[in-house]
Amino acid sequence: MRFKDIWGKIQPPTDQSDFPYQDFSKKVLRTYGILCFVCAAASACLLIALGVDVVNTLEQNLTAMNAGVALAISFMAVGAIALFCVMGVRFCKNISKYGEELAIGNIALVCVSFLAMMLLYGLSWLHVVYLAELVFLGVVTVYMDPELAQERLLTKRAHSMPPEERRAYEKKIDDRKPLKGYITLNFFNLFWIFVVCCFLGLVVETIFHLIIFHEYQDRAGLLYGPFSPIYGFGGLMMTIALNRFHDKPIPVIFLVSAVIGGCFEFFVSWIMQYAFGIVAWDYSGTFGNIDGRTNVMFMCFWGLLGLAWVKLLLPMLLWAINKIPWKLRYTLTTIAMVFMVVDVIMTVQTIDCWYLRESGHAPDSALEEFMAKHYDNEYMQNRFQTMTMNPDQASRI
After folding, report:
1. 84 pLDDT above the threshold of 60
2. DSSP letter string over 4-41?
3. Rounded to an integer, what distance in angstroms lies between the CA atom of residue 109 and that of residue 134?
4. What is the percent of the chain with per-residue pLDDT over 90, rounded to a whole number?
5. DSSP state for residue 177 in the 8-state scheme
6. Can you spell out the DSSP letters for 219-250?
7. Residue of 93, 189, 197, 246 with fewest CB within 10 Å of its CB?
8. Is the Cβ–Cβ distance between 323 and 332 less than 8 Å?
């Protein structure tokens, strides 16, 4: 099939007004409301534990940076607690309006708190609470997304139709226009965008390194599989930011992509260095570099990648997603999501144990002993060939 044919199919003709709207279950909303109050209480406990630890550390050597990070975590925790309480009250009163937006806002706060906590402690039991809150908030966004809720209702209706009528109805559903923007920013679409960008970004970077340096280097960013999460998150940020600007002039898309990519590259480099003492790239001495974490050339590369993504690859991906049969769509997404979650958790955990070993900390738990046996320093250095680790550069308490 020619690309222009694919592009034409990406502009769905069906209007959302042709379909019904599904109300949300009162019991489910009340359950979510109660869980919101539980999450608020858990966040409050984390805030208290952090405060006690910071006060105890004051007697030792608490740097200005650590104090600033602790203060930032406190603000994020207060914001998350407030949002959880607002969500809890609204859900218990059966008010679903803005529920998805509140959950997404809280996801952002929890994610920032998660990363900031790593700067202070690496991985710890505190992150289990954050992960549980993120899973809960993810479930809320999936449940309350209006188009996914509509699709669940329509799928249920389609099961009772004759085969030919059902196929025509399913096609009509797949051809719905997004409620807003170029692409529906729901969990299903964003997850596959993340996965595809993780893979494609790694392929592009590997080929670029091979052409420039005439050698192959494993540039993967996760423990398993050919994935580089920096490109996955970069693709997500570009998709979200450019969702309503896809038809803008090319210079605008290029500039927005370059700024987003450069800022994200700087942020990831900073987090990796101060959480784990890892330097994965250093552009010091190059033109227009910013603290060696990004530079003008790579910001331009991000701009070109953003252009190629929005104008070429994203339409093809959406076309491919719509080709996945309904019966397989959620099954494949669930399997792939479980794999990626396990991959990310294992990656962060093995890197954290690698950091502890490099710091002279002997394994003193079953988990650390397992990691030392199966993912020793030599294995980690061979897997993450672009990374160099120096624990002295980290900022942990």
Report:
1. yes
2. HHHHHHTS--B-GGGS--PPPPHHHHHHHHHHHHHHHH
3. 10
4. 26
5. P
6. ---SSSSS--HHHHHHHHHHHHHTTTTTTS-H
7. 93
8. no
Read off the pLDDT of residues 140-172 as tens digits, 9 standing for 90 and up: 888 887 766 766 666 666 666 677 666 666 666
Give just the sign of the alpha carbon dihedral 100, 104, 106, 110: positive
The pLDDT of residue 39 is 94
CB 272 within 8 A of CB 389: no
How big is the CA angle at 15 (ends 17 and 325), to the nearest 5 degrees? Answer: 110
**Which two tokens mark 46?**
């984390």
According to the model, what pLDDT value does residue 386 have? 86
**Helix ranges (DSSP H) in the chain:** 3-9, 26-57, 64-92, 99-121, 126-144, 146-159, 163-174, 187-213, 229-241, 250-276, 296-308, 314-322, 326-358, 366-374, 377-383
Confidence of residue 16 (pLDDT cuts 50, 70, 90): very low
Buried b / exposed e across 306-329, counting CB within 10 Å, b at 16+?
Answer: bbebbeebbbebbbebeebebeeb
Q: Name 60's Cβ contacts closer than 8 Å, sequence gap at least 6.
A: none
Q: How far apart are CA 376 and CA 292, in angstroms?
A: 29
Query: Alpha-carbon distance 287 to 300, whole Å?
Result: 12
Tokens describing residue 174: 């797949």
Contact partners, residue 3, CB within 8 Å, separation at least 6? 312, 316
User: In this model, does residue 21 exceed pLDDT 90?
Assistant: no
**Contacts of 383 by beta carbon, 8 Å cutoff, 6+ apart:** 218, 220, 223
Q: Please list the residues that pair with 176 across neighbouring strands.
A: 14
Pair 223, 382: CB distance under 8 Å:
no
d(CA 65, CA 178): 44
CA dist 349 and 351 (Å) reads 5
In order, the DSSP letters of 263-303 are HHHHHHHHHHHHHH-EES---TTSTT-BTTTB-HHHHHHHH
- Alpha-carbon distance of 273 to 106, in angstroms, equals 26
Where b means 16+ CB within 10 Å and e means fewer, 88-104 reads bebbbeeebeebbebbb
Rounded (10°) angle between helices 229-241 and 187-213: 120
